Amino acid sequence: xxxxxxxxxxxxxxxxxxxxxxxxxxxxxxxxxxxxxxxxxxxxxxxxxxxxxxxxxxxxxxxxxxxxxxxxxxxxxxxxxxxxxxxxxxxxxxxxxxxxxxxxxxxxxxxxxxxxxxxxxxxxxxxxxxxxxxxxxxxxxxxxxxxxxxxxxxxxxxxxxxxxxxxxxxxxxxxxxxxxxxxxxxxxxxxxxxxxxxxxxxxxxxxxxxxxxxxxxxxxxxxxxxxxxxxxxxxxxxxxxxxxxxxxxxxxxxxxxxxxxxxxxxxxxxxxxxxxxxxxxxxxxxxxxxxxxxxxxxxxxxxxxxxxxxxxxxxxxxxxxxxxxxx
Length: 327
Hints:
single chain, 6-stranded antiparallel β-sheet, Dna Ligase, domain 1, alpha+beta
């Protein structure tokens, strides 16, 4: 049989590329080298390259997603997708690999595109009775009726780019005067914006993944931000506490786990997803779902896997084997 060749795709074209490079490097060092040949592949705006342990860059042949390793041409058996944002989390990479017949560890391209577009995802899930915050949608160039926005969502509210991650471009708005600067900040990341009521409650995040016929739902992680909300500094600069398992009741734990599992099934997901909720008065309100969640050692999913008694080596192997099985 020989070892399966795993290309770990990392980087991307968005503001999150540096975070993705870190996630990718954790995957590379955690994968079982006795089971897999591991190839870090940087997918960046200035080119796609396999980067050897000596730091030598070998260009990727995009026609078949192959690359030289100094001795021979490598055709990966599977791609471990750790790209946050475009093109890894919005379906582009998934569609490209699907056309080439190469399995990858994240969800399908349509599900990735749908969940990456927060507005479209909420519209679909609301029809299935998933509870979400009140929201108002704005596109660049629209004539803005600020009083109409406030009437719909109230204050405080969140102003977010529709398609971005790691809280880039997100603001919490308390007064009418703060609205225009918040819109400008969000428009710097995306032409489409979503404005949502700021829910009051406990923020939690829940990982779900499939292995064979089983759906595994992790214990929720509670997010306590030192800042106004779980922003970039809270996520990556240590300005938050992430407590696993969350300090919520058994009933709330089951409710949010069931909702995370239901959303995974409703959207027909594959791979690992991480869904974020606010539990307000015992009820989980869905915020968003991430189809390539952060995998650095400090990230939520690795903490949840460890809490479930899994090593990262074991967990990442399950994701690869599931992707290969689907082929």
